[in-house]
Design brief:
Structural class: mainly alpha
Shape: elongated
Radius of gyration: 22 Å
Length: about 180
């Protein structure tokens, strides 16, 4: 490593960042948000854990319960971030990660919608309009469970379906990734 650093700094007049530079196995290094893994003697590209964490932090900021914007604006901003992220990381083998992130984002959106409905009366009315039985809508509309917990409940999964989220312009992360894999 010293001879390479010496050549880069003295001959090519480039500055070498000692913290980021190292000679190591490719599976232990991060490069431009990617890392590598070995599968049956072949190295493949994957998304580094830090990149996933940074993406989740951005999504958390947009889907925060205290961030008071309309659901349309929230989805528009979310689609902008996810489109760029999927386009950048489309060369990685990340089908499972994309599906997990997609499930997590949809749960965050359900939480935001549930929070926007605020009062039990509004929750009941909206659940009934989405096709939930009256007594179930009353039961879940008056629950005192937290927003995040309700976002994963069977009642919201059945009423605020993936098709419903697509109808209000949410573009699925995993569907976009699969589309990029075909091109």
């Amino acid at each position: 490593m010293d001879s390479v650093t010496n050549f880069l700094e003295n001959k090519l007049k480039l500055k070498v960042n000692k913290e980021k530079s190292a000679v190591d196995k490719p599976t232990r290094r991060k490069f431009l948000g990617f890392s590598f893994y070995n599968l049956w003697g072949k190295y493949n590209i994957r998304i580094h854990d830090k990149s996933i964490k940074r993406f989740k932090d951005k999504v958390r900021k947009i889907t925060s319960r205290s961030y008071s914007i309309s659901i349309e604006d929230r989805i528009r901003r979310l689609n902008q971030i996810t489109t760029g992220w999927v386009n950048y990381f489309s060369i990685a083998k990340a089908k499972g990660i994309m599906q997990e992130l997609d499930e997590w984002i949809r749960r965050r959106l359900r939480m935001c919608i549930w929070k926007q409905w605020k009062k039990p009366r509004t929750k009941i009315k909206n659940l009934i309009s989405l096709g939930v039985l009256k007594y179930k809508a009353y039961e879940w509309g008056n629950t005192r469970k937290g927003y995040w917990r309700i976002a994963n409940s069977p009642i919201l999964s059945r009423s605020l379906t993936n098709k419903y989220l697509e109808s209000i312009s949410y573009q699925s992360l995993s569907a976009r990734y699969q589309k990029m894999q075909l091109t």
